[in-house]
Amino acid sequence: MKIVQMVTQMEGAGAQKVAYLLHQSFLERGYDSELWFLYLKRPAYSGKEGVRVLWERMPYGLEFFSLVRKMFTWIRVDRPDVVITHTHYANVVGHAVSVVAGAKCRIAVQHNPLQTYPVFARHVDRVFGTLGIYTAQVAVSETVVQSMSSYPDQYRNIVSRVYNGIVAEEPTAQLAERYLANVSSCGPKILHVGRFSKQKNHDALLQMMLQLPDANLILVGDGERRSEIEHCVKQMNLGNRVTLLGEIPAEGVHALMHACDLFLFPSIYEAMPMALLEAMAAGMAIVASDIPANREFLSDAGILSAADPASLAQAASRLLANPAQADASGRRAIERTKQFTVEATADGYEKLFPALRNGVSSTPSSNATSSFPAYQPAGIRVHAMTKFDLVKVVAEAIGKETRYIIANHNLHGLYCWFHEPKVRKFHESADFTHIDGMSLILLGRMLGLPLKRQHRTGYMDLLPILAQEAAINGWRIFCLGSKPGVAERAALKLRRQYSGLQIRTRHGHFDPNSTGKDNQEVLADINEYAPHILLVGMGMPRQESWIFENKNQISANAIFCCGALMDYVAGEIPTPPRWIGMLGFEWLLRLASEPRRLWRRYLVEPWFVVGQIATYYVRERTKSQGRGQ
């Protein structure tokens, strides 16, 4: 799938960083992704993989039409499946050209409250969203969603809220020292990161400094007001206490966040303030203006203040004079930012891609309304399902008040399938069988099946969106498996991460004899809770056998085999980076972490499976030749 993102100008600001992080995530997930900047303002991403610039400077006069023609040509040549535009001018120009050029899926990203857009852009945006020029929209926060409250239903019905993701980096003390070389070592160091524009309210920052005579202010950023701010610093005699660093690399910003004493963020308006979130992830003491977006994200992890100089100075003095309060709010800030990952952001955008919502050909399961492409390599049924498809069938099962059994296959699962009759019976009774292993995707491609990377879903990839939907919709989850205490530790982490999540656990160390006392107690515990989702994690083939033997006594809408999922969540087993799984090397990291337990699974069993599949196709070919004779 080809994805093209467009941003108005290349510089190191928040929307540009969001688009670049998304672009990197799309590349890691196997998409053919490119990031286009309409024109170059500052070379923040020049030379990066897949990054292109249409115009070398801001276009003036007739140059604008040359830029539009160039954009049209690029879209016609590249034929992207999805066009995503960021910032209001890219939304307007990018979508107008994309419609004419024939791009089918067009997503507009709203990075600011709509009332802050220039009048022309605001009116065109409203028309485009209402008439369907945008096929989907992303609002980066609830603040942006609320700014649309007076818009027509046609506009608001295509809006999805997707929070931007941030990357927390390790501090580099030497790098911070380099940037702070000209800053006085006396007095606290106050940091502000943001574009030099009216929105960021630098005037209040400078006026505040007159009331904090011992403090130093470090300003990171660039923009149209830089010369004006430099003049103000000189006029106010603040040159020895205010340092303008300009636009610096991301690693430098992170280093400063760990080296400075306080982060000040007095913006007049924001949508999802990326610099504020990065400061929160660094555990900084924070004072921010009391505006809707800052309330939404900072909450009690800092001080929300009026944006006037006196109020900012008073709030800053409080935190600087109370290290214990600053440390406590910093710890809360770190916890709050853990939900804002680039992985979750990319997941949110993927939900809007038509190729991931709809299969190219469909084969319904025996018990379900939903249908997905189904294939039978070597006579073993699998469905081409994404993680979003799996959440969709869960919602369908709950809505229909029925029960779906959802199986999965990886190489170890195929090994068990060949050896265990109960596993084969379990798969025959399952409503869906998704793929949990890039090796099966590769094997399917070798056999000529149109399987893609997104058709591989591991449970650590599924869990975040499943838990989020469960928390939003009030779905109850029951986890059966793991050693005593492990699943409950995992559940505690999930409850903290997903506010409102209902989840109960029971360990998997019991006698699974279907008529035994242990088993009946387990069934009674599950049915008393009446979960919408049952996750059974007792390892292959025990979990499949248990579900097959007890399925008619289980009160749950969606039943999954999840293996060691809760062990990963609890930290009992090291969790490989998710991009490793998409590349097909997660098995290697698991083998390295548990060689004694897993060497046979990863080094011996695959050869048996490949041999069985090769034998099957040789036999089928021989039969076919015999019939031909």
Order of strands across the widest beta sheet?
A: 3-2-1-4-5-6-7
Which structural class do the helices and strands define?
A: alpha/beta
Major beta-sheet overview: 7 strands, parallel
Give the end-to-end Cα distance, rounded to a whole number of Å: 43 Å
Strand element count: 23
Percent of residues in β-strands: 15-25%
Quick structural summary:
By secondary structure, this protein is α/β, with parallel strands linked by helices. 48% of the residues lie in helices and 17% in strands.
Describe the structure.
This protein is α/β, with parallel strands linked by helices and 629 residues long. It is 48% helix and 17% strand. It has 29 helices and 23 strands. Helix 3 links the parallel strand 4 and strand 5. The longest helix is centred in the last third of the chain and has 24 residues. The chain is globular. The two termini are 43 Å apart. About 2% of the residues have low confidence.
